Amino acid sequence: MPLQTRTFSVTGMHCRGCEAAIESAVNELEGIRSVRADFAKEKVKVTWEDSKTSLAKIFQAIEDKGYACAPMSSPEPRREKLKTVFIVSLGLAGIAALLVVGALLTQGRPHIPRFEQGVSYGLLFVTGLLTGFHCIGMCGGFVIGYTARESEQTSPSYVMAHLKYGIGKTLSYTAMGAAFGLLGSIVTFTPYLRGIAQLVAGVFLILFGLNNLTHFRFFRMFSLRMPSFLSRFVFVKSGKTSNPFVIGLLTGLMIGCGPLQAIYVLAAGTGSIVEGAKMLFVFGTGTLPVLLSFGAMTSLISHKVSQRLIALSGVIVIALGLMMFNRGLKLTGSGYDFQSLIHGFSSIHL
C-alpha cells in the first residue's frame, strides 16, 4: 500500500500542549502511520496510507482544533527577522518605560499598589479568563464529548455535567498548585534560594509572555515538553471516559500546556503549599466561563480576535513575571528591587 509523507506549516500553536492536541486529532483518522508536531518550528510531519485518508482530511482535522495549515514556506527573509527583533525590542522598551513612569508616579504614595505587594489574584483570574480561548483548542473536544452524551438528557443533567467538569478541573488545578508549591518549599529551604527560584520563575514567565505576544521562534525554546506517555494517557483516558468529573481531573495533568506551565512555575516560586493552591484555584476558575460556553464564544468571536485575546494574556503573564522577579530580588538580600533601582535612577537624573 502506497504511503505519503508530508511536512507542512501549522500556525496558532502556543505551547507544547498544542503538539499533543494536534497529534491526537490526526491520529483519530484512519490510515495514519505517524504524526509529529513541532511547536518550536511551527510544523507538522505526517505519514499516512494514501488509500485511506488524504492531506485535505488531515488539514481539516487540525483546523477543527483551531489551528491553520499551509504548505511549508520559504525561510524567513533577513529583513523580516530584523523587523521581528525590532518589534520585540520596542515592546520590551515600552514595558520598561511603563515600569519607570509607574514607579515614579507611585513613589511616596503608599495607597497605590506597587510591585513588591505581591501577585494579584485579580490578574490571575483575568489570565485564566483569557487563557480560556487557548483551552478551547486543548480541552474543547473533551467538553464536546460529554455534552453530546448529555444532550439527549434533561436540562438539569446537562448543567450538572458542566458543574462536575468544572469542579473536577478546579480541584485538579488546586491540587497541582499545592504540589508545585510543596516542591518549591523543598528546593528553596532558605530565603536566598527562594529568591533565586523566584528570579528563575520570573524570567520563565516573562519569556512565555513574550512568546504569546510575538511569533519570534527564539522564545518558543523556553517551554517544558510534556512526557509523551503522559500526553497520550490524558487524551486517551479523556476520550474514553464518560464521567465529566474525571475528565476535569485529568486536565490538571496537561503539564505541556503553556499557560498552565507558567502558573505552575509561579506557584513553585512562592515556596508555599497554600499560596500555590490558591493561585491555581483562582486561575482554574478563570478558565471555566469561556471553555464551558465555547459554542457561543466561537460563533461570536473570530479566530483572529481570539488570537489577539491570547496575546493580551501574554501582557498579563509578563506583569506576573516582573512581580515574581522583583520578589526574588528582595529575597536574595541583594539590596536591589525595582523600586530601589528606579529611586536611584531618579535621584541621579532629577
TrEMBL record:
Q: What's a Gene Ontology MF term here?
A: metal ion binding
Q: Which PROSITE patterns match?
A: HMA_1 (PS01047), HMA_2 (PS50846)
Source superkingdom: Bacteria
Q: Which CDD domains would you find in this protein's record? A: HMA (cd00371)
Q: Name the UniProt key words of this record, in alphabetical order.
A: Membrane, Metal-binding, Transmembrane, Transmembrane helix
Q: What InterPro entries does its record include?
A: Heavy-metal-associated_CS (IPR017969), HMA_dom (IPR006121), HMA_dom_sf (IPR036163), MerP/CopZ (IPR001802), UreH-like_TM_dom (IPR039447)
Q: What are the residue boundaries of the HMA domain, all occurrences included?
A: 4-70
Transmembrane helix found in the keyword field: yes
Mind telling me what this protein is named? Heavy metal transport/detoxification protein
